[in-house]
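Attaching the record inline, Q. Sequence:
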Amino acid sequence: YVLLENTSGDMQLLFPRDLALFDFGYRQGQAYYAPADDDWMTLPSPGAGENRIHLIASAARLTNLESLLSQHAAAPASQQALLHRKLADEIRNLKGQHRDLQSTSARPLPMGGAVRGGLSQSYLRPLAREIRADKFYAWTYTITHR
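Structure, as predicted:
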């Protein structure tokens, strides 16, 4: 699962595009890109703040997280803030529950600069980093806007 939590407090599922992908068509060992193909994304930055990209990989489906993501996507604006908090709590709880399964040697990946559209996956492939874990992996990348 790859989620974007932006500076305005919204949470967006980037991967998979559709949770039904886990029911069919998903294969371990296959390269997946988020966003797919040449669908470039721009991080919203309405002033100073932080965008967070949550990367969560699990050998078992995270049905509670999936349920909250579905509720969040379908919720009216009046319930978005509450569901955002529930999603953030669920991510924090998952990290706590699986702390003993995570690699202790994980280090942040260097990030920087600006990349604009027009680059192909063949260009990006050598820049990608493989992450391995036995049963669970979670990492949050924080991008600060000043």
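The first helix runs from residue 63 to 74. The longest strand covers residues 49-58.

More tomorrow.
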